[in-house]
Amino acid sequence: MSVPARTSEVIGILGGMGPAATADFYAKLVSITPGTSDQDHLRTVIWSDPTIPDRSEALLGDGPDPTPWLLDGGRVLREAGATVIAIPCNTAHAFVPHIAGHVGLPIVHMIGEVARHLTTLSPRIHTVGLLATAGTVRAGLYQEWLDRSGIRLLLPGAASQDQEVTTAVHAVKAGTHDDRTAALLARAAQRLTARGAQAVIAGCTEIPLGLRADAVDVPLVDPALILAQALVRRAGAAHTTG
Amino acid sequence: MSVPARTSEVIGILGGMGPAATADFYAKLVSITPGTSDQDHLRTVIWSDPTIPDRSEALLGDGPDPTPWLLDGGRVLREAGATVIAIPCNTAHAFVPHIAGHVGLPIVHMIGEVARHLTTLSPRIHTVGLLATAGTVRAGLYQEWLDRSGIRLLLPGAASQDQEVTTAVHAVKAGTHDDRTAALLARAAQRLTARGAQAVIAGCTEIPLGLRADAVDVPLVDPALILAQALVRRAGAAHTTG
Q1: B31 lies within 8 A of chain A by CB
Q2: Is B193 in the A-facing interface, judged by CB distances under 8 Å?
């Protein structure tokens, strides 16, 4: 007797950017997958390569292009049997156009999924704030997708971006985040809500590790969770079609 | 300019048994790896196949042999570039002798590492209690390794094993664990310490997800953490040789 998989989908996670965010993403994927035993869960292969060069530095012209590392990771995932790729790193999505045609697998686009999700909220979101790396901001990743959805994007001012958001992201990556890190992120979020943001996107996978949702008085949108939900829907593992 | 890996080691995690324990194990591995940036972390490939048949059922004669699934996962990890395999599932170690000669990679033996760790504690541990699945208990996995180390093993009575430990492990696997689950595990642990256990092994990777270390008045040994520490030491990523 063998135990057949409930779905032929094998989730491929191109991770390591950073590694703690990858662990957090996989934990979220497991926690939202419906089921009562191990065997109800999705087969998943994770390539976690923390040596992939820093995405923000590349986008700011200060470091090597991570594209060859991402292509290599995509190849590992395909050869391991993955049928779809998810990349739980916002900034890495700047490089998706460079790899999408070469990895031989569909990529569920985290930022596209967040834009789609925002259009489903009620009351309707007209203005959203973004906490993200300088690279994600510079690359205009959310701008592009939200423009298509008719949602206005608010970005932190230069000082808040540098002294609050970037400082906090580096603290999470270094494993040194604490109450002060949370306070930096909460202050950056409050500046956005004060300017009219009806929701705030935690647009770097490290941010939900440093900032609690209840520290922000509008919905805090976690792209990693939205991506996990999209994968579960896609795999047909969801009990509802939500 | 490329960013060279600090070590040629690529950690292979044969997981999915269960998936939440795999996510937890990877989070532990990341959290104990010394470093201040993504690039200090270990390249890791994870094959998480929750469809692997239940290890306890197989050992109790109630289900299919998971060996073919484990061999297949080992092959995936080797082909993905792993240089060493870790299996964050205690019960699956009953099948390690069936796969060790076939996967073509060294396997860091979690249970062997726990036995080694126990011999290093001060004051010296003479008697240790075990909370584990019925399959792990039946297979005598800890018994075998602790015997070699001269440490006496205490097991829960049949009623405690069935009504407390097994019930709690199933609750964690179903994602329904709560304060009642924690109380079941704490009671089972207390029965062992009352009989003289100087430490308790959380000998199923689901147990640390349901039981807090401070609910037990002796050291609670987490085999997943011990395994993660062994991998970091092996990879030479540790700053100390502890």
Answers
A1: yes
A2: no
Instruction: Verify whether the Cβ–Cβ distance B48 to A43 is below 8 Å.
Output: yes
B204 is catalytic: yes
Q: Is A63 on the interface with B (CB under 8 A)?
A: yes
B51–A39 C-beta distance less than 8 A: yes
Which residues of A belong to the active site?
89, 204
Annotated catalytic residue: which of B89, B172, B221, B235?
A: B89
Q: Is residue A90 within 8 Å of A133, Cβ to Cβ?
A: yes
Question: Cα separations (Å) of B242 from A176, B28, B84, B230, B237?
Answer: 22, 17, 20, 10, 11
pLDDT truncated to tens, each residue of chain B (242 aa)? Answer: 333 446 789 999 999 999 999 999 999 999 999 888 888 899 999 999 999 999 999 999 999 999 999 999 999 999 999 999 999 999 999 999 999 999 999 999 999 999 999 999 999 999 999 999 999 999 999 999 999 999 999 999 999 999 999 999 999 888 889 999 999 999 999 999 999 999 999 999 889 988 988 989 999 999 999 999 999 999 984 333 33
Q: How far is B47 from chain A (nearest CA, A)?
A: 5
3-state SS class at B45: strand
Q: Are A10 and A83 in contact (CB under 8 A)?
A: yes
Residues listed for chain B = 242
Q: What's the ipTM?
A: 0.89
Q: Which two tokens stand for residue A213?
A: 């949702």
In chain A the domains, ranked by start, together with CATH numbers, are 10-109+225-234 (3.40.50.1860), 111-222 (3.40.50.1860)
Q: DSSP of B171-206, one letter per residue? A: HHHHT---HHHHHHHHHHHHHHHHTT-SEEEE-STT
A4 touches chain B (CB under 8 A): yes
Structure token pair of residue B93: 């170690």
With CA atoms as reference, the chain A residue closest to B43 would be A49
The 3-state secondary structure of chain B reads CCCCCCCCCEEEEEECCCHHHHHHHHHHHHHHCCCCCHHHCCEEEEEECCCCCCHHHHHCCCCCCCHHHHHHHHHHHHHCCCCEEECCCCHHHHHHHHHCCCCCCCEECHHHHHHHHHHCCCCCCCEEEEECCHHHHHHCHHHHHHHHHCCEEECCCHHHHHHHHHHHHHHHHHCCCCHHHHHHHHHHHHHHHHCCCCEEEECCCCHHHHCCHHHCCCCEECHHHHHHHHHHHHCCCCCCCC
